[in-house]
């Protein structure tokens, strides 16, 4: 197992470099880079999100301002060359792309992610500021998914083919087919002051700061739960459905095995057979997938759901960084999330071995 882990760890670095190379190369061909964003701000064309969220970055600029497309940067006509050169140096565009990439990777491998181009803060501080939102939503969504899916999946497996199994399967498939963002809108319409009830707040994870500061500890807990209920349900819906079916199928596979027949022949009670023997083996694939599931929900937070509920999390951060061409945030978060994802893949394999020591990845590879 040690040799297998070592091989996987050695593959992390080239895999991570490959991910960064592909994304860095693609970003070189995306119009409207950081220099154009700074020029737009300097000329009063709007903030970093105004006029550069799509197209070629020239929307709203006249033919005279763009110089008919002959200028190196859109909208730079009339600006002193010294100012353009200063911007290039500030953003590192006075160097060739290969040199910029190598310098960036050298810094990243030392966990030096630099400062945001447009927020005047270190990248680490910006990410940490958004982290609590994604962390809490991801954690509670995952716990809720497991808390519902495992008992429901076991119940469906035990009652396989029954009316309960058929009806719950229909509901699960219907919920799985509904996109998360559409379900989030439905929740707002039904329970957040849309056309029906106004039980939950419309936006945010907490009340306004003035109200929040006046609340007691338990008042803050209640306020947080009140605000977080709808976003957590919207986050949970997709993972809950797939995890329930996975649990059921895993349980059914174990029930059909010979050791279950033997245990029943020995006179063991049905509960002892199901929960003393079958459950542990059936939960192997579910438990082993916990790290990957957590990272998937945590780092794959839905941008649309965050936008619907006005949540300032990592999903919106990544989108805004891409739109604004804020490369330090975009590539810095990509590097960290890619590294964590690769390590979690190794941890998932270790979880398999921990739950079932019979698994030997080295022998399988041999």
TrEMBL record:
Keywords: Cell membrane, Membrane, Transmembrane, Transmembrane helix, Transport. It is found in: Cell membrane. It is a multi-pass membrane protein. The chain crosses the membrane at residues 9-30, 137-158, 170-192, 224-247, 282-309, 329-355. The keyword Transport applies. GO terms for biological process: microcin transport; transmembrane transport. GO terms for cellular component: plasma membrane. InterPro entries: MetI-like, MetI-like_sf. The keyword Membrane applies. Its main location: membrane. Residues 131-352 form the ABC transmembrane type-1 domain. It comes from the Bacteria. Belongs to the binding-protein-dependent transport system permease family. This is Microcin C ABC transporter permease YejB. It comes from Aliishimia ponticola. The lineage of its organism: Bacteria, Pseudomonadati, Pseudomonadota, Alphaproteobacteria, Rhodobacterales.
